[in-house]
Write a structure and sequence with these properties.
Length: about 190
């Protein structure tokens, strides 16, 4: 497993070792020991154990996000695509962080087999670049509706460069379209029950 740092040092691309031959290919999609050793090797902490795994399917131009959960249900996420492709985005929402309000975007696909590790304290979203894109992610905390929050995907202060062609209609849920802008988030709303 190879770890590649992004512009936000705590968010890393994970490249698995893929074995190819005339029959097809094989890879370990997750090995906790190897994942932990690889993170420590680049100076990152070992995350909490993964407790939930999610799988979604999206049509082309579906945009989901930017989602996060408040403590004590804040989630670290290890995300990957098993069919199709996405442009995946992580936004640093850790108050006081040197990279607060910054974002990083990576293309994940069934062909490149890359994964993205997004620790707690980040909002996350993606846009499907192909029909029937299947997205899998492991989380370090269980989903909690009471702690679920979102930031507008088109927040002008974030200025995320989503790979969308002019004239293409994005398919975004009303909940995501009505999310708050980053500067509207109430600092008192930093914890939930």
């Amino acid at each position: 497993m190879k770890i590649i740092r992004t512009e936000i040092p705590d968010v890393v691309i994970v490249e698995p070792v893929v074995f190819n031959d005339d029959r097809g290919w094989f890879m370990e999609s997750f090995n906790e020991s190897s994942f932990h050793r690889s993170l420590v090797a680049v100076g990152l902490p070992i995350p909490k154990s993964f407790v939930q795994s999610n799988h979604s399917s999206s049509k082309m131009n579906v945009l989901r996000g930017l989602h996060y959960q408040l403590p004590p249900h804040a989630q670290g996420k290890l995300v990957r695509v098993v069919k199709g492709s996405v442009f995946d985005v992580a936004v640093d929402i850790r108050v006081g962080s040197e990279t607060f309000g910054k974002w990083v975007g990576v293309e994940l696909s069934d062909l490149n087999k890359k994964m993205l590790w997004i620790p707690e304290g980040f909002a996350h979203g993606f846009i499907a670049l192909e029909d029937n894109t299947e997205f899998l992610y492991k989380t370090t905390a269980y989903y909690s509706k009471a702690c679920e929050r979102a930031i507008r995907w088109d927040d002008p202060d974030l200025n995320i460069e989503w790979p969308v062609l002019d004239g293409i209609h994005l398919n975004v849920s009303s909940k995501d379209n009505e999310a708050l802008l980053l500067h509207e988030i109430n600092n008192a709303d930093l914890f939930c029950i």
